[in-house]
């Protein structure tokens, strides 16, 4: 049976992830309310703006329930802003009172807009552990990972910077595989939700 995978749909590029998950063999649904979060086997946190998403998570009373699901081991995948939110520590988290809030799904420190200080957006082919050929990676005001804990596996780098990681059944990328036609990263996540990888 296909796993039921939610896409957090408060803000950001929800539609692209729904399409990618569907093509990767999941039953893809949007998540905006607690009752919807309760029905999913795994969750994608899309790209967008991590400070705005943090604010909306609070407004929709989803912040603590989502943290609790992650702590219980619900599989999750975050791209770009989603990677920032899955971190245990956020560097350059934003202006006081409007900061991005870590959900602590992965033991890592992530710097917001890290590449953005050098170049706003760029693309490149990234070797990705477990995939047979490089992924075409699109970076948009992207974060990078500055520290990983002992249980975190680094799956990809752009130059010296860590841009793809996995801890247990939680996955994060600085880039946006949902905007390319390549579904291998989403397929990896769907298989992680099913317990096959
Ligand atoms: N810079 C954004 C943030 O801080 C992330 C950008 C993106 O998701 N494309 O949340």
UniProtKB/TrEMBL annotation:
Protein name, as recorded: Pyridoxal 5'-phosphate synthase subunit PdxT
Source species of the chain: Mycolicibacterium litorale
Active site: residue positions: 80 (nucleophile), 176 (charge relay system), 178 (charge relay system)
Cellular component GO terms held in the UniProt record: cytosol; glutaminase complex
Keywords, sorted A to Z: Glutamine amidotransferase, Hydrolase, Lyase, Pyridoxal phosphate
Gene3D superfamilies named among the record's database cross-references: 3.40.50.880
Family: Belongs to the glutaminase PdxT/SNO family.
GO MF annotations in UniProt: glutaminase activity; pyridoxal 5'-phosphate synthase (glutamine hydrolysing) activity
Complex formation: In the presence of PdxS, forms a dodecamer of heterodimers. Only shows activity in the heterodimer.
Signal peptide (residue range): none
């Amino acid at each position: 049976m296909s796993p039921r995978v939610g896409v957090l749909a408060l803000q950001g590029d929800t539609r692209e992830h729904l399409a990618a998950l569907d093509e990767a063999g999941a039953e893809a649904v949007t998540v905006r309310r607690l009752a919807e979060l309760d029905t999913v086997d795994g969750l994608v946190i899309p790209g967008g703006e991590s400070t705005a998403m943090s604010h909306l998570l609070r407004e929709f009373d989803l912040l603590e329930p989502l943290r609790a699901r992650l702590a219980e081991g619900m599989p999750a995948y975050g791209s770009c802003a989603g990677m920032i939110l899955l971190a245990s520590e956020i560097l350059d988290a934003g202006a006081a009172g409007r900061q991005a809030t870590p959900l602590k799904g992965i033991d890592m420190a992530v710097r917001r807009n890290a590449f953005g200080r050098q170049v706003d957006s760029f693309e490149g082919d990234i070797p990705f552990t477990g995939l047979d050929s490089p992924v075409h990676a699109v970076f948009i005001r992207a974060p990078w990972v500055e520290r990983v804990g002992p249980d975190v596996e680094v799956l990809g780098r752009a130059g010296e910077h860590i841009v793809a990681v996995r801890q247990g059944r939680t996955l994060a990328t600085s880039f946006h595989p949902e905007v390319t036609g390549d579904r291998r990263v989403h397929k990896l996540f769907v298989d992680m939700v099913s317990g096959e990888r």
